[in-house]
Design brief:
By secondary structure, this protein is α/β, with parallel strands linked by helices. 43% of the residues lie in helices and 12% in strands. The chain is globular.
Length: 352
């Protein structure tokens, strides 16, 4: 379920932040504020395709109603007033999915919130980073994981999570739990995790992987962290079996502009997965703020939750949480030290 935090909207919109988003036509911030052009008397959403005005000719408001009160009228080209309705529809659909044990078709879900299926599919993915079907699968996977964590039987957990049977559960949780249900419940029982510790320009790096992909990449750690997390897994030194993955991870550190597409085996909530997907979209050499990430996954109020999801990343560098900074431009936190974060960012800027 999406997490939210309250933000203070009684103060004026940060002009530098808003104009930068307006100038790059940031679609992820549509519905969060509007830009009003003094020379035309029109207010627009950030992604409006119209030619950009001079900075001194634009002011920003949190709500369209505020722009209207100031004497502006809605842009007929980008129709900023419709964005709020879109977000309300997505929020209503999320509530339906979260609170119901039924499986809705796209047509049923769209009809329930008053939209055409194709249009609703597009706005749902724009706001959440997932399709309605993918979001539903992630909800079911999370319910199953919660049930398994409660030491319930696997079969009971499958039906409690809303699956029609075991075969559907195994198909749908692939890529969400990252392991078989018994392994998820029993500390990795039946799973082999291979590891290697190597020297890099950032110091000693631990890389661990299941047969599906890399499950941990960290610094200043050894294999004991794996034994603590998966006490029943078979944890073995990787040797030649990990050579390609280790080489790819080193390339990602030393040549970030040509980061290889390495297989990952990570698990998280729907919100965490959406944040991690957004992190992987940040180009090397660029940064985003925690507020940018929260807005990009469709929940601009969840800045703190986005920070928590950022910190829950188990695969450093490959899911580039180091590319997220504070709104004031400072580096913020990093699990492996700000010096490493700064080195990563400087190397990436130098590589482009």
């Amino acid at each position: 379920m999406m997490l939210e935090m309250k933000v203070d909207r009684t103060s004026a919109v940060d002009t530098d932040w808003a104009f930068a988003a307006f100038d790059r036509r940031d679609r992820s911030l549509d519905g969060q504020f509007v830009g009003a052009v003094k020379t035309t008397g029109i207010y627009c959403k950030p992604s409006c395709p119209a030619r950009r005005p001079l900075r001194e000719n634009v002011e920003f408001f949190w709500e369209p109603a505020d722009a209207i009160a100031a004497g502006y009228r809605s842009c007929m080209r980008c129709k900023p007033d419709e964005v709020g309705r879109d977000r309300e529809a997505v929020a209503a659909a999320l509530k339906l999915i979260e609170q119901s044990d039924d499986t809705f078709s796209l047509e049923e879900l769209a009809d329930a919130v008053g939209y055409a299926p194709h249009h609703f599919h597009r706005i749902f993915k724009r706001d959440t980073g997932l399709t309605p079907a993918a979001y539903r699968r992630s909800v079911q996977a999370r319910r199953a994981a919660d049930a398994l964590d409660g030491n319930g039987r696997v079969t009971d957990a499958i039906y409690e999570a809303g699956y029609s049977g075991p075969s559907r559960f195994y198909a749908n949780t692939k890529g969400h739990l990252g392991m078989t249900p018994s392994a998820w419940k029993n500390g990795g029982a039946g799973v082999t995790i291979r590891w290697a510790v190597v020297d890099t320009v950032l110091g000693r790096m631990l890389l661990a992987a299941t047969d599906k992909g890399i499950c941990r990449l960290s610094f200043d750690e050894d294999e004991s962290v794996l034994a603590g997390r998966f006490p029943n897994a078979e944890i073995v030194a990787g040797g030649t079996a990990l050579e390609d993955l280790v080489r790819g991870a080193i390339d990602a550190i030393e040549r970030p502009a040509q980061m290889p597409d390495l297989p990952l085996d990570v698990a998280g909530t729907a919100f965490q997965q959406a944040v991690w997907n957004e992190l992987r979209r940040i180009p090397a050499g660029e940064t985003r703020t925690y507020a940018d990430i929260a807005a990009a996954v469709g929940n601009p109020k969840a800045v703190r939750a986005a920070g928590s999801a950022n910190g829950a990343n188990n695969v450093a560098v490959l899911i580039p949480c180091h590319r997220v900074i504070r709104t004031d431009g400072s580096l913020g936190g990093y699990a492996y030290g700000l010096e490493r974060k700064e080195k990563l960012l400087n190397a990436e800027r130098a590589s482009i």
